Amino acid sequence: MMKNLLLYLSSNRIANKAAKKFGRRLGADRFVAGDTLNQAIDVVKQLNSQGLRVTLDHLGEFVTDPAEADQAADEVIATIDAIAAAKAEANVSLKLTQLGLDLSYDECFKRMKRIVARAVEQNVFVRMDMEDYARNEATIRMYEALDDVYSPHIGIVIQAYLYKAGEDMTRLKQRQPNYRLVKGAYKEATTVAYEHKTDVDENFKQLIFAHLANGHYAAVATHDEAIIQATKEHAKQHHIPVTQFEFQMLYGIRTALQHALVKEGYPVRVYVPYGVDWYGYFMRRMAERPENLTFVLKSMAKK
Questions:
Q1: For the chain: N or C, fewer Cβ within 10 A?
Q2: What is the pLDDT of residues 91-119, one digit of tens each?
Q3: What pLDDT score was predicted for residue 187?
Q4: Binding site for substrate: which residues?
Q5: Could you tell me which residues are annotated as the binding site for FAD?
Q6: Residue of 57, 129, 168, 201 with catalytic role
């Protein structure tokens, strides 16, 4: 019940507006690198110095104004340029709804072309995040169109809680895609998504194994130690080199585990969000792990 409530609040505009009055005193500082790109680049440099790779995400979603979508595209391009200037081990992640997907597919595609063209110039990889099911097919179609021109600088996300995840992987297999494989963080109907964690976990493992068997690069995004261990054992058993996959985790979560994996010789990439539009992202992190909500409540009590 608490998870469903938090997921509902994550997309509630009234709650978003109310939360911003408190700023990140709610506890979002633990999960968000700062308001500005300069603050985010400082965090990237710090993480790189610890042997951690990074993907930077300028926070924002569900944009309803074309000018705001254009501004978001400009910010992503600035992020790409900043990564290149800093010679950082980092790529970028973005959401299509921040670039106006809900306003116009064609205009969103134009913004994406501008972004990925700059990424090719700067030799920076761009990951298209996957949002809720209603936008799944449009995201895949845009990935296919961009990959036709800009491969291998563009990647996408596959969500294990969706029944169609395996079909999507088969559809895209010939492209030799670079996936981020995740469980999924949105509230979806049982007609399109697995309801029980055990089913999601099993599908997640099968997707990881299948993608690795195809010889394609896999970014395994999870904090679940059972999934991480299963991936490590599968890779060893099938002689899959660590250059073919990486583990990805969120900034501010399971930091000790991130460092432990690096010491073991596994590539680890930290998903680092920044920007003022932090509310939706923050609420989904609360929904994913009850421990995160406990941390926030303790932090608020100390203010």
A1: N
A2: 999 999 999 999 999 999 999 999 999 99
A3: 85
A4: 95, 284-285
A5: 130, 159, 183-185, 197, 222-223
A6: 129
* 25 noted as active-site residue: no
Residues 35 and 185: their CA atoms lie apart, in Å, by 23
pLDDT of residue 21: 52
Residues 53, 127, 180, 269: which is the catalytic one? 180
Annotated binding site: 95, 130, 159, 183-185, 197, 222-223, 284-285
- Check if 70 is active-site: no
> For the chain, which ranges sit under pLDDT 50?
2, 5-10, 12, 14-15, 18, 295-303
CATH fold group of domain 33-277: TIM Barrel (3.20.20)
Please provide the DSSP assignment of 44-98 as one string: HHHHHHTT-EEEEEE-------HHHHHHHHHHHHHHHHHHHHHT-SEEEEE-GGG
